[in-house]
Structures are given as structure tokens and as C-alpha cells.
Here is the input.
Amino acid sequence: MLVVAGLLSSLVLTSVFLLVMRPQPLSPGARSLFAVDVAEPRDQMQWIFRTLASEPARWSRIHIRHSATRRGNAQSLGGHSGDMGDHFLIGNGDGLPDGAIQIGLRWDRQLPAELPWRGIDSATISICLVGDFDKSAPTALQVQRLEQLIHALQRQYGIPAGAVVAQQRPGPEGIGRQFPATIFASRLLP
Here is the structure.
């Protein structure tokens, strides 16, 4: 009887521990893309262009920034609405799997980015990478997924490399000092 009671109490304690430690569910409005390496990487990004809007917006620029937080996903960065203000979010493994691309509500509805600072025009696609790149560099997988995503967007909308902006300044409107901006810029499509 003592063994059974011990077993039941450990099961109850384990269940309580798992409930407390479970991650928050993703926002019902955000979609996630867990990209995998395939022979033709452009194939894996094509479904980002299947949006809820009947007519896609006319995109002409891309703005890249970091969340300036250690962890995050669309819900934690966007509050209860799950609308993080950006079109895309790329995870670092803390709050969202490393390299996972979360598609925001604004992209699905083809709405302009809504960020707390000025200077992003309505034709700009906003991409946020989870992390504080003033303190540490992004993961290799984050940079790889960012490159794949930007290449797909450049091809689809004819966005030249000069219209892809990643300002190396501190704070969430920039990309942070540890982001490899020069190397990344050299890998953009012309």
C-alpha cells in the first residue's frame, strides 16, 4: 500500500511540474514555418505567399531588426492579440524553435508593419529575429532562415539588395551590434 501511495504521489507531482513548465500556446492567428534543408530552398518558402488577403500589397522594402529580448514568439512579443507588429519572426530556440519562421497576422492580412517607432513606410516588410544582438550574435540557423526568407521575398516582389535595411544600432529598431551585417549584405540578391 505504501508503494502504491508513493507511486501515485510521484505521478501527481510530475503532472503538476509538466503543467507548470509547458510552453505557452502560439497565438491562433500566427502560423509557423519550420523550414528544412532541401535541394531547392526556394520551394520551401513558397507557401508564405498564400495569405488571407485577396490581393497582395505592393512591397518594395525589407526592414530587419532584433527583438532586443532573450526569448520570444508572436504571442509573447505581441501581447494578447498575438500581433507582434512585424510580418515575420525568426526564433532562436528560446520561446520559438531555432530557425522557425512565424508568420504574423499583419502578413496574412497584407497590412503594413505596426511598430512603436516612426520611419517604416507602409510598403516595408518587417522581419524580427528573436534575440538581443547587442549582447550576443544570432544563431547560424536564424541567419540561414533569414537569408532564405529574404531571397524568396526579393524574387517575389523584385526587391533589390539596396532596399533591404538592417541598421546596426542598439535598441529594437536596429539589428544590434553583434549581427554580421556586412557578411549578410554580401549574400543578398542584387
In short: The longest strand covers residues 61-66. Residues 27-186 form a domain with the Lysozyme-like fold (CATH 3.40.80.10).
